[in-house]
Design brief:
Elements: E1 2-9, E2 13-20, E3 25-32, H1 39-59, E4 64-72, E5 75-77, E6 82-85, H2 98-106, E7 110-114, H3 115-126, E8 135-140, E9 144-150, E10 153-155, H4 186-189, H5 191-204, H6 216-224, H7 228-252, E11 256-260, H8 268-281, H9 284-287, E12 291-294, H10 301-311
Parallel strand pairs: 1-4, 4-7, 8-11, 11-12
Antiparallel strand pairs: 1-2, 2-3, 5-6, 8-9, 9-10
Helix pairs in contact: 3-10, 5-7, 6-7, 7-8
The chain binds zinc ion.
Length: 313
């Protein structure tokens, strides 16, 4: 059986798995990423994850290891297989010849891609986008990430510098964004933006909740109890997100918009609101073939997607 190792590198943990061609996870684990220490410490942890999977693979009959796929935050030079930078949550994660380094240590061919892109690829090959070939994947979390799949392949713009879906200009002269610009979709429609708005509105009403208590889940729970402020803030969040997605529909006219991340797991009500907004704002001729659906692979999208880089060759 042909398999590959998928590594999903995040700011706190590395999720990893041994995956077969059908996208089935045969073995999996998690390890701290040491992202707050140094790039060298992160590489050490990646190699430990790979060693763990190889130890398992060598104990099982008929497992043929084809290679290693790595999903990492930041901008990737796929031609030279270098992490260029842009991953604020990993110390020193700039100009790292990561593929070459992993290959020389493991003797296994290695492919790198951006983390949101591999999630989108995973959902396309094995999840909510399976059997479709034009897909927009959006992940809603602290930020907004995404991927565009055209004719079954990741579309990243020239030299792999594009598809920053969270940073499409949304409001002219709007609020500051983490990317250095202002008014990006992410600054209005991410989970962090929802939390920030909720806290500000509470403060305006003279209510104070400890900031670390307010999470996306906390707001969703209040929403379900009918709390007027939570209802107002979540309605606004879904309207913003739907408005952004309407833009993606008008540009790509995808068969499916797949939405992942912690907040979209809140339930059907979330998707009903986002769909209503998206189809209200999109041009109907562009949206005629589009469905907006939840991601299916959950927190395994990154590892399965990374592993599938090897199979998508
Ligand atoms: Zn931005």
């Amino acid at each position: 059986m042909e398999t590959s190792i998928g590594l999903d590198l995040g700011g706190t943990a590395i999720k990893y798995a041994l995956v077969n061609r059908q996208g089935e996870v045969l073995y999996q684990g998690t390890r701290p990423s040491s992202a707050d220490i140094s790039a060298e410490a992160v590489i050490h942890q990646l190699l430990e994850c790979i060693n763990d999977v190889r130890a398992y693979a060598s104990s099982v009959h008929k497992v043929k290891l084809k290679g290693i796929g790595i999903g990492t935050p930041g901008i990737i030079d796929e031609t030279n297989r270098i992490v260029l930078g842009g991953a604020e949550n990993i110390v020193g994660w700039e100009n790292i010849h990561l593929a070459q380094r992993i290959e020389s240590e493991t003797k296994l061919s290695t492919i790198l891609a951006n983390d949101a892109n591999v999630m989108g690829l995973g959902e396309t090959m094995f999840g909510a986008g399976k059997s479709y070939h034009c897909i927009v994947f959006v992940t809603v979390g602290t930020g907004i990430g995404g991927a565009v799949i055209i004719d079954g392949k990741l579309f990243n713009g020239y030299a792999n510098r594009g598809t920053e879906l969270g940073h499409v200009p949304f409001i002219a002269n709007g609020i500051d964004c983490a990317c250095g610009s202002v008014g990006c979709l992410e600054a209005y429609a991410s989970t962090a933006a929802l939390i920030r708005t909720f806290i500000a509105e509470q403060a305006a009403q003279g209510v104070e909740t400890a900031e670390d208590e307010v999470t996306g889940r906390f707001i969703v729970e209040l929403y379900k109890k009918g709390d007027p402020l939570a209802v107002k803030c979540l309605n606004q969040h879904c309207d913003y997100l739907g408005h952004g997605i309407a833009g993606f529909i008008n540009v790509f006219s995808p068969q499916r918009v797949v939405i992942g991340g912690g907040l979209p797991e809140a339930g059907d009500f979330y998707f009903e609101k986002v769909r209503k907004a998206a189809f209200r704002y999109a041009m109907s001729d562009c949206a005629v073939n589009t469905e907006i659906v939840p991601a299916q692979l959950g927190n395994m999208a990154g590892t399965i997607g990374a592993a599938s880089l090897i199979f998508s060759l």
